[in-house]
Amino acid sequence: MQKVRLNNGVEMPILGFGTFQIPDNETEQAVIQAIQAGYRHIDTAQSYMNEEATGLGIANSGVAREELFITTKIWIENTSYEGVQASFQRSLERLGLDYVDLLLLHQPYNDVYGAWRAMEELQKEGKIKAIGVSNFAVDRVVDLALFNEITPQINQIEINPFHQQKEVIDALRQEEVVPEAWAPFAEGKNNIFQNELLSEIGKKYNKSVAQVIIRWLVEQDIVVLAKTVSPQRMKENLDVFDFSLTKEDKEQISTLNIGDSQFFSHSDPKMIKALASRKINV
């Protein structure tokens, strides 16, 4: 598996298995199947409500813990110094782990600076190998880095053919922050899996639209999270290292960029209030 090196030297598999929206009662088996298919990077979060099932999948996968890269995320109501300290310990207990490889602040709201200081301390204690953020605008990433000891190692953001975020990605790289893509398939919006342009590119290489999208991201050194409960598609999504896109392919894909989120704006006051009101009590 190809890896990317974070700004603190930690190596992270470039392909990850996402557990968002996988029902709790299906998560354990999905994680086992993903690891058996070849995934070594598993992504969960407090707000997904499936950390315990993810931990069971890890424990029952038959693969040693040290071979795996595990991510979880702190939800908004726990985004404070005390909230991180308490809720992260509960996350470890649910996952059945002594440490995680990556801990992220899931949203850029609440006391992110207090939360970040707690994460820095936990990293120094060896309970977290890398720390980062999710859904942060570049200016918030820079601000966090300037006034704290540790620069975020990751920013997990929406990146897909309809929302390519080239300027954001370039700016993150200038700060030595690795971009990580959630919703690389835009959750099927705009009939992405039937997109004529992506389908034609895929036919040239005998690859699916999903494989073309993943390859497009990998060639930009962007970490990719893909979710599926199909063992066949798990294997398919990993099978992207035997072909390369041409310059023309990439130029064609660039024409699909709409430039807006396929979901919602993280600067919309109504959305901020809606997200902040979601209590998970974990």
From TrEMBL:
<comment type="similarity">
    <text>Belongs to the aldo/keto reductase family.</text>
</comment>
<keyword id="KW-0560">Oxidoreductase</keyword>
<feature type="domain" description="NADP-dependent oxidoreductase">
    <location>
        <begin position="15"/>
        <end position="257"/>
    </location>
</feature>
<feature type="active site" description="Proton donor">
    <location>
        <position position="48"/>
    </location>
</feature>
<feature type="binding site">
    <location>
        <position position="106"/>
    </location>
    <ligand>
        <name>substrate</name>
    </ligand>
</feature>
<dbReference type="InterPro" id="IPR036812">
    <property type="entry name" value="NAD(P)_OxRdtase_dom_sf"/>
</dbReference>
<dbReference type="InterPro" id="IPR023210">
    <property type="entry name" value="NADP_OxRdtase_dom"/>
</dbReference>
<protein>
    <submittedName>
        <fullName>Aldo/keto reductase</fullName>
    </submittedName>
</protein>
<feature type="site" description="Lowers pKa of active site Tyr">
    <location>
        <position position="73"/>
    </location>
</feature>
<dbReference type="InterPro" id="IPR018170">
    <property type="entry name" value="Aldo/ket_reductase_CS"/>
</dbReference>
<dbReference type="GO" id="GO:0016616">
    <property type="term" value="F:oxidoreductase activity, acting on the CH-OH group of donors, NAD or NADP as acceptor"/>
</dbReference>
<keyword id="KW-0521">NADP</keyword>
<dbReference type="Pfam" id="PF00248">
    <property type="entry name" value="Aldo_ket_red"/>
</dbReference>
<dbReference type="InterPro" id="IPR020471">
    <property type="entry name" value="AKR"/>
</dbReference>
